[in-house]
Design a protein that fits this description.
Lysozyme-like, 3 domains, 12 helices, elongated, disordered N terminus
Length: 383
Protein backbone atom coordinates (compact mmCIF):
# COMPACT_ATOMS: atom_id res chain seq x y z
CA UNK A 1 0.00 0.00 0.00
CA UNK A 2 1.72 3.14 -1.18
CA UNK A 3 0.34 6.33 0.29
CA UNK A 4 3.30 8.39 -0.81
CA UNK A 5 0.97 10.92 -2.50
CA UNK A 6 -0.64 11.69 0.82
CA UNK A 7 2.68 12.01 2.64
CA UNK A 8 4.11 14.28 -0.04
CA UNK A 9 1.03 16.48 0.07
CA UNK A 10 1.29 16.82 3.83
CA UNK A 11 5.01 17.54 3.69
CA UNK A 12 4.37 20.37 1.19
CA UNK A 13 1.21 21.77 2.74
CA UNK A 14 2.17 22.08 6.40
CA UNK A 15 5.30 22.93 8.31
CA UNK A 16 5.15 19.92 10.56
CA UNK A 17 7.66 17.99 8.49
CA UNK A 18 11.25 19.06 8.02
CA UNK A 19 12.17 19.22 4.35
CA UNK A 20 15.96 19.12 4.61
CA UNK A 21 18.15 16.32 5.93
CA UNK A 22 15.70 15.20 8.62
CA UNK A 23 13.13 13.69 6.28
CA UNK A 24 9.82 12.84 7.96
CA UNK A 25 10.83 14.55 11.22
CA UNK A 26 8.27 16.96 12.65
CA UNK A 27 9.09 20.59 13.39
CA UNK A 28 7.96 22.33 16.55
CA UNK A 29 6.46 25.38 14.83
CA UNK A 30 2.81 25.61 15.84
CA UNK A 31 1.58 29.06 16.79
CA UNK A 32 -0.52 29.77 19.87
CA UNK A 33 -3.48 30.79 17.70
CA UNK A 34 -3.30 27.47 15.88
CA UNK A 35 -3.18 25.61 19.18
CA UNK A 36 -6.41 27.18 20.33
CA UNK A 37 -8.12 26.15 17.09
CA UNK A 38 -6.80 22.61 17.35
CA UNK A 39 -8.57 22.12 20.66
CA UNK A 40 -11.84 22.53 18.78
CA UNK A 41 -11.15 19.80 16.18
CA UNK A 42 -14.34 17.84 15.58
CA UNK A 43 -13.90 14.10 15.97
CA UNK A 44 -16.89 11.79 15.56
CA UNK A 45 -17.11 9.04 18.19
CA UNK A 46 -19.71 7.01 16.31
CA UNK A 47 -17.29 4.13 15.69
CA UNK A 48 -15.21 4.47 18.82
CA UNK A 49 -14.28 1.12 20.38
CA UNK A 50 -13.89 0.67 24.11
CA UNK A 51 -11.61 -2.38 24.38
CA UNK A 52 -13.16 -5.24 26.35
CA UNK A 53 -11.28 -7.71 28.54
CA UNK A 54 -10.76 -10.16 25.68
CA UNK A 55 -9.16 -7.58 23.41
CA UNK A 56 -6.99 -6.22 26.20
CA UNK A 57 -5.77 -9.70 27.16
CA UNK A 58 -4.98 -10.47 23.52
CA UNK A 59 -3.19 -7.13 23.30
CA UNK A 60 -1.11 -7.99 26.35
CA UNK A 61 -0.12 -11.30 24.71
CA UNK A 62 0.77 -9.47 21.51
CA UNK A 63 2.95 -6.84 23.17
CA UNK A 64 4.62 -9.46 25.38
CA UNK A 65 5.51 -11.43 22.28
CA UNK A 66 6.73 -8.51 20.19
CA UNK A 67 8.14 -6.04 22.72
CA UNK A 68 9.11 -8.17 25.69
CA UNK A 69 6.54 -6.80 28.13
CA UNK A 70 2.78 -7.01 28.43
CA UNK A 71 1.51 -3.46 27.90
CA UNK A 72 -1.74 -2.02 26.61
CA UNK A 73 -1.31 1.74 27.03
CA UNK A 74 0.10 4.12 24.44
CA UNK A 75 2.37 6.39 26.41
CA UNK A 76 4.16 9.36 24.82
CA UNK A 77 3.65 8.33 21.17
CA UNK A 78 6.49 9.34 18.85
CA UNK A 79 5.19 8.43 15.39
CA UNK A 80 2.06 9.03 13.32
CA UNK A 81 1.51 6.38 10.65
CA UNK A 82 -0.73 7.25 7.69
CA UNK A 83 -2.59 4.31 6.14
CA UNK A 84 -5.11 3.84 3.36
CA UNK A 85 -7.77 1.11 3.46
CA UNK A 86 -7.73 0.29 -0.29
CA UNK A 87 -11.52 0.18 -0.17
CA UNK A 88 -14.00 3.04 -0.34
CA UNK A 89 -16.59 1.34 1.86
CA UNK A 90 -16.52 2.83 5.35
CA UNK A 91 -18.85 0.20 6.83
CA UNK A 92 -16.62 -2.66 5.69
CA UNK A 93 -13.63 -1.05 7.37
CA UNK A 94 -15.54 -0.38 10.59
CA UNK A 95 -16.78 -3.97 10.72
CA UNK A 96 -13.24 -5.27 10.31
CA UNK A 97 -11.85 -3.16 13.13
CA UNK A 98 -14.64 -3.91 15.60
CA UNK A 99 -13.68 -7.60 15.87
CA UNK A 100 -11.52 -8.55 18.83
CA UNK A 101 -9.90 -11.51 17.07
CA UNK A 102 -7.86 -11.34 13.87
CA UNK A 103 -9.88 -12.87 11.02
CA UNK A 104 -8.90 -13.55 7.41
CA UNK A 105 -5.30 -12.27 7.65
CA UNK A 106 -3.15 -15.33 7.07
CA UNK A 107 -0.25 -13.05 6.16
CA UNK A 108 0.09 -11.79 9.74
CA UNK A 109 -1.73 -14.36 11.88
CA UNK A 110 1.59 -15.76 13.14
CA UNK A 111 2.09 -12.44 14.94
CA UNK A 112 -0.78 -12.92 17.36
CA UNK A 113 -4.54 -13.23 17.75
CA UNK A 114 -5.48 -9.65 18.56
CA UNK A 115 -7.21 -7.90 15.68
CA UNK A 116 -5.68 -5.07 13.69
CA UNK A 117 -6.84 -1.62 14.67
CA UNK A 118 -6.52 2.10 14.16
CA UNK A 119 -6.92 5.21 16.28
CA UNK A 120 -8.61 7.30 13.60
CA UNK A 121 -10.55 6.77 10.38
CA UNK A 122 -10.92 9.58 7.84
CA UNK A 123 -13.78 9.14 5.39
CA UNK A 124 -13.78 10.41 1.81
CA UNK A 125 -15.89 13.41 2.85
CA UNK A 126 -13.24 14.43 5.39
CA UNK A 127 -15.16 13.21 8.44
CA UNK A 128 -12.76 12.14 11.19
CA UNK A 129 -13.86 9.17 13.30
CA UNK A 130 -12.29 7.94 16.49
CA UNK A 131 -11.79 4.19 16.64
CA UNK A 132 -9.31 2.79 19.19
CA UNK A 133 -8.99 5.29 22.07
CA UNK A 134 -5.65 7.10 22.08
CA UNK A 135 -4.96 5.71 25.54
CA UNK A 136 -4.47 2.24 24.07
CA UNK A 137 -2.04 0.59 21.68
CA UNK A 138 -3.49 -0.51 18.35
CA UNK A 139 -2.05 -3.18 16.08
CA UNK A 140 -1.29 -1.54 12.74
CA UNK A 141 2.46 -1.26 12.04
CA UNK A 142 4.98 -4.02 12.80
CA UNK A 143 7.70 -2.88 15.15
CA UNK A 144 6.13 0.48 16.03
CA UNK A 145 2.71 -0.21 17.55
CA UNK A 146 4.01 0.51 21.05
CA UNK A 147 4.77 4.14 20.12
CA UNK A 148 2.66 4.93 17.04
CA UNK A 149 -0.71 6.53 16.33
CA UNK A 150 -2.59 5.11 13.35
CA UNK A 151 -4.65 7.15 10.87
CA UNK A 152 -6.64 5.14 8.31
CA UNK A 153 -7.91 6.90 5.18
CA UNK A 154 -10.91 5.38 3.45
CA UNK A 155 -10.07 4.77 -0.19
CA UNK A 156 -6.91 4.39 -2.22
CA UNK A 157 -3.58 6.03 -1.48
CA UNK A 158 -3.22 7.57 -4.92
CA UNK A 159 -6.79 8.87 -5.10
CA UNK A 160 -7.65 10.53 -1.79
CA UNK A 161 -10.08 13.43 -1.80
CA UNK A 162 -9.25 17.05 -1.06
CA UNK A 163 -11.42 16.81 2.06
CA UNK A 164 -9.31 13.90 3.28
CA UNK A 165 -6.08 15.80 2.66
CA UNK A 166 -7.33 18.74 4.67
CA UNK A 167 -8.55 16.51 7.48
CA UNK A 168 -5.19 14.73 7.64
CA UNK A 169 -3.48 18.10 8.03
CA UNK A 170 -5.86 19.17 10.81
CA UNK A 171 -5.60 15.84 12.61
CA UNK A 172 -1.80 15.75 12.50
CA UNK A 173 -1.59 19.29 13.86
CA UNK A 174 -4.06 18.33 16.57
CA UNK A 175 -2.05 15.28 17.57
CA UNK A 176 1.21 17.20 17.55
CA UNK A 177 -0.35 19.80 19.83
CA UNK A 178 -1.66 17.07 22.13
CA UNK A 179 1.61 15.11 22.30
CA UNK A 180 4.92 16.95 22.38
CA UNK A 181 6.58 13.53 22.16
CA UNK A 182 5.64 13.07 18.47
CA UNK A 183 8.72 13.26 16.26
CA UNK A 184 7.87 11.56 12.98
CA UNK A 185 5.13 11.08 10.43
CA UNK A 186 5.45 8.22 7.97
CA UNK A 187 3.41 6.42 5.36
CA UNK A 188 2.76 2.80 6.22
CA UNK A 189 4.83 1.63 3.27
CA UNK A 190 7.85 3.38 4.84
CA UNK A 191 7.75 1.65 8.22
CA UNK A 192 10.54 -0.86 7.43
CA UNK A 193 12.81 1.61 5.63
CA UNK A 194 15.85 1.56 7.90
CA UNK A 195 17.39 4.55 6.11
CA UNK A 196 14.75 6.90 7.58
CA UNK A 197 15.26 8.44 11.04
CA UNK A 198 12.12 6.93 12.55
CA UNK A 199 13.59 3.42 12.27
CA UNK A 200 15.66 3.93 15.42
CA UNK A 201 12.39 3.29 17.29
CA UNK A 202 11.84 -0.12 15.68
CA UNK A 203 11.31 -2.81 18.30
CA UNK A 204 10.54 -6.43 17.52
CA UNK A 205 11.57 -9.62 19.32
CA UNK A 206 12.43 -12.62 17.15
CA UNK A 207 10.14 -15.64 17.41
CA UNK A 208 12.80 -17.94 18.91
CA UNK A 209 13.44 -15.56 21.80
CA UNK A 210 9.72 -15.33 22.46
CA UNK A 211 9.17 -19.09 22.31
CA UNK A 212 12.04 -19.74 24.71
CA UNK A 213 10.87 -17.16 27.25
CA UNK A 214 7.26 -18.34 26.95
CA UNK A 215 8.14 -21.97 27.62
CA UNK A 216 10.99 -21.53 30.09
CA UNK A 217 8.91 -22.50 33.14
CA UNK A 218 7.72 -25.75 31.60
CA UNK A 219 11.20 -26.61 30.31
CA UNK A 220 12.67 -26.13 33.78
CA UNK A 221 9.84 -28.24 35.23
CA UNK A 222 10.56 -31.04 32.74
CA UNK A 223 14.33 -30.94 33.17
CA UNK A 224 14.06 -31.03 36.98
CA UNK A 225 12.03 -34.28 36.67
CA UNK A 226 9.29 -32.79 38.81
CA UNK A 227 5.86 -34.43 38.93
CA UNK A 228 3.70 -32.19 41.10
CA UNK A 229 2.04 -30.53 38.08
CA UNK A 230 1.69 -33.64 35.91
CA UNK A 231 -2.04 -33.84 36.52
CA UNK A 232 -2.39 -30.42 34.85
CA UNK A 233 0.11 -30.96 32.08
CA UNK A 234 -0.57 -34.55 31.06
CA UNK A 235 -4.16 -35.46 32.01
CA UNK A 236 -6.30 -35.54 28.89
CA UNK A 237 -9.69 -33.89 28.62
CA UNK A 238 -8.96 -31.57 31.54
CA UNK A 239 -7.88 -28.34 29.88
CA UNK A 240 -6.79 -25.59 32.21
CA UNK A 241 -7.03 -22.25 30.42
CA UNK A 242 -4.49 -20.78 32.80
CA UNK A 243 -1.87 -23.02 31.23
CA UNK A 244 -1.07 -22.12 27.63
CA UNK A 245 -0.02 -24.95 25.31
CA UNK A 246 1.07 -23.16 22.12
CA UNK A 247 0.04 -26.26 20.17
CA UNK A 248 -3.72 -26.00 19.70
CA UNK A 249 -3.25 -25.95 15.94
CA UNK A 250 -1.91 -29.51 16.14
CA UNK A 251 -3.69 -31.05 19.13
CA UNK A 252 -7.33 -30.21 18.68
CA UNK A 253 -8.74 -33.41 20.22
CA UNK A 254 -8.59 -33.27 24.04
CA UNK A 255 -9.16 -37.04 24.14
CA UNK A 256 -5.97 -37.56 22.15
CA UNK A 257 -3.48 -35.07 23.52
CA UNK A 258 -2.96 -32.44 26.19
CA UNK A 259 -0.63 -30.26 24.17
CA UNK A 260 2.18 -30.61 26.65
CA UNK A 261 3.02 -34.12 25.49
CA UNK A 262 3.75 -32.45 22.15
CA UNK A 263 6.06 -30.00 23.93
CA UNK A 264 7.92 -32.89 25.59
CA UNK A 265 8.29 -34.59 22.21
CA UNK A 266 9.77 -31.37 20.81
CA UNK A 267 12.19 -31.09 23.74
CA UNK A 268 13.39 -34.68 23.28
CA UNK A 269 13.70 -34.19 19.52
CA UNK A 270 15.69 -31.00 19.95
CA UNK A 271 17.98 -32.61 22.51
CA UNK A 272 18.72 -35.50 20.14
CA UNK A 273 19.25 -33.05 17.30
CA UNK A 274 21.61 -31.06 19.50
CA UNK A 275 23.67 -34.19 20.23
CA UNK A 276 23.86 -35.04 16.53
CA UNK A 277 24.85 -31.52 15.49
CA UNK A 278 27.40 -31.26 18.29
CA UNK A 279 29.03 -34.50 17.17
CA UNK A 280 29.09 -33.39 13.56
CA UNK A 281 30.61 -30.04 14.50
CA UNK A 282 33.28 -31.76 16.56
CA UNK A 283 34.11 -34.02 13.62
CA UNK A 284 34.44 -31.01 11.34
CA UNK A 285 36.62 -29.26 13.91
CA UNK A 286 38.89 -32.31 14.07
CA UNK A 287 39.25 -32.31 10.30
CA UNK A 288 40.07 -28.61 10.28
CA UNK A 289 42.57 -29.09 13.10
CA UNK A 290 44.24 -31.98 11.32
CA UNK A 291 44.62 -29.86 8.21
CA UNK A 292 46.14 -27.08 10.30
CA UNK A 293 48.52 -29.50 12.03
CA UNK A 294 49.59 -30.96 8.70
CA UNK A 295 50.15 -27.79 6.78
CA UNK A 296 52.67 -29.50 4.59
CA UNK A 297 49.93 -31.63 3.02
CA UNK A 298 49.09 -30.22 -0.40
CA UNK A 299 45.45 -30.18 -1.45
CA UNK A 300 44.86 -32.33 -4.51
CA UNK A 301 41.89 -33.21 -6.65
CA UNK A 302 42.07 -36.81 -5.39
CA UNK A 303 39.01 -37.91 -3.43
CA UNK A 304 38.35 -41.32 -1.94
CA UNK A 305 35.33 -42.67 -3.80
CA UNK A 306 35.45 -46.22 -2.50
CA UNK A 307 33.48 -47.30 0.54
CA UNK A 308 34.52 -46.23 4.03
CA UNK A 309 34.69 -49.87 5.13
CA UNK A 310 37.15 -50.59 2.33
CA UNK A 311 39.34 -47.71 3.48
CA UNK A 312 39.20 -48.94 7.08
CA UNK A 313 40.30 -52.39 5.90
CA UNK A 314 43.21 -50.83 4.03
CA UNK A 315 44.24 -48.70 7.04
CA UNK A 316 44.22 -51.69 9.39
CA UNK A 317 46.25 -53.72 6.90
CA UNK A 318 48.87 -51.00 6.51
CA UNK A 319 49.08 -50.52 10.29
CA UNK A 320 49.32 -54.26 10.90
CA UNK A 321 52.15 -54.50 8.36
CA UNK A 322 53.99 -51.59 9.99
CA UNK A 323 54.26 -49.59 6.77
CA UNK A 324 54.26 -46.11 8.39
CA UNK A 325 57.07 -44.66 10.47
CA UNK A 326 58.70 -48.09 10.76
CA UNK A 327 55.64 -49.47 12.47
CA UNK A 328 55.36 -46.77 15.15
CA UNK A 329 52.36 -44.90 13.65
CA UNK A 330 49.09 -45.54 15.46
CA UNK A 331 45.76 -46.37 13.83
CA UNK A 332 44.43 -42.97 14.91
CA UNK A 333 47.34 -41.16 13.27
CA UNK A 334 47.02 -43.15 10.05
CA UNK A 335 43.25 -42.70 9.87
CA UNK A 336 43.60 -38.97 10.55
CA UNK A 337 46.15 -38.65 7.74
CA UNK A 338 43.85 -40.43 5.27
CA UNK A 339 40.91 -38.25 6.35
CA UNK A 340 42.98 -35.13 5.79
CA UNK A 341 44.43 -36.17 2.42
CA UNK A 342 41.19 -37.47 0.95
CA UNK A 343 38.77 -35.03 2.69
CA UNK A 344 36.69 -37.84 4.13
CA UNK A 345 35.19 -38.52 7.54
CA UNK A 346 35.87 -42.18 8.30
CA UNK A 347 33.72 -42.18 11.41
CA UNK A 348 34.00 -44.87 14.10
CA UNK A 349 37.15 -46.73 13.06
CA UNK A 350 37.01 -49.47 15.67
CA UNK A 351 33.32 -50.22 15.08
CA UNK A 352 34.05 -50.78 11.39
CA UNK A 353 36.91 -53.09 12.35
CA UNK A 354 34.61 -55.15 14.58
CA UNK A 355 32.20 -55.59 11.70
CA UNK A 356 35.09 -56.71 9.52
CA UNK A 357 36.19 -59.26 12.12
CA UNK A 358 32.67 -60.66 12.45
CA UNK A 359 32.46 -61.68 8.79
CA UNK A 360 32.07 -65.41 8.35
CA UNK A 361 33.86 -65.45 4.99
CA UNK A 362 36.12 -63.04 3.15
CA UNK A 363 37.13 -61.12 6.27
CA UNK A 364 39.59 -59.14 4.11
CA UNK A 365 37.19 -58.68 1.21
CA UNK A 366 38.65 -55.40 -0.03
CA UNK A 367 42.26 -56.58 0.12
CA UNK A 368 41.31 -59.69 -1.84
CA UNK A 369 39.58 -57.48 -4.40
CA UNK A 370 42.74 -55.38 -4.67
CA UNK A 371 44.81 -58.50 -5.23
CA UNK A 372 42.48 -59.77 -7.96
CA UNK A 373 42.37 -56.37 -9.67
CA UNK A 374 46.16 -56.07 -9.70
CA UNK A 375 46.64 -59.63 -11.01
CA UNK A 376 44.08 -58.98 -13.73
CA UNK A 377 45.94 -55.83 -14.77
CA UNK A 378 49.21 -57.76 -14.93
CA UNK A 379 47.64 -60.54 -16.98
CA UNK A 380 46.15 -58.02 -19.41
CA UNK A 381 49.52 -56.31 -19.81
CA UNK A 382 51.28 -59.66 -20.35
CA UNK A 383 49.00 -60.48 -23.25
Amino acid sequence: MKNIVLCLFISISIDLIACNNDKNEINENISNSEKSKLKELEINNKYKIEPNDLRLNLLREYTKKHYGEACIYLNNPQIIVIHSTETENLEIVVNIFKNDLLIGREDIEFGGEVNVGTHFIIDTNGEIYSNTPLDYIARHTIGFNYTAISVENIGFADNLTEEQFNSNIKLIKYLKNKYNSIKYIIGHYEYNNNSLPHFNLYKELDSLTFYFSRNLDFYQYYRSKSTYLDRYYFTRNQNDLRICTDSSHIDKDPLYSTGYDFKVAKIITNELLKIYLTNRLQELERIVQRKADNGQVVETILRWTGSKRALVELIYALEANGDFNKGTATLKEIAGYFENVFSIDIGDLYHSYLEMRSRKINRTRYLETLQKSLLRRMDENDT
